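Bench notes, afternoon.
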Amino acid sequence: MHTRITKATAAIDSGHAMLLDDLRCLVNRLAADRDETAFASALRRFVALAKEHFMAEEDELRRLGYGDLNAHHAEHKGLIDTADALLLSLTTRFDYYERWGVALYFLHWLTNHIRRQNEAITPLLNDARAQEVATAA
């Protein structure tokens, strides 16, 4: 069990924690090894996990009636499009420091996305929980 990092639902929060853990592994791999093949493999894993998480997160937000889902989806799509483009061009021409830049870009994007989502979804979750309590009463 992980420490909650957002006010989102447990499933969304768990997915965020998984992605952050995977990014930590990516950064740790960079710190321990300059091998571009290992970096590309770790980045492919992160992108696959992100795609899976984003689909589940959008399904959950749709279920909750999140009003800004199109913009939220566009953020996810932007990151995935960027990641896919980087993976296509990832060859040995990416030197060690460029790989650090890629890893830090994704870490920065994900932490800011989580922070903004947390601010946007909190009122929606409070409303949904209030409705559940009212219905149960």
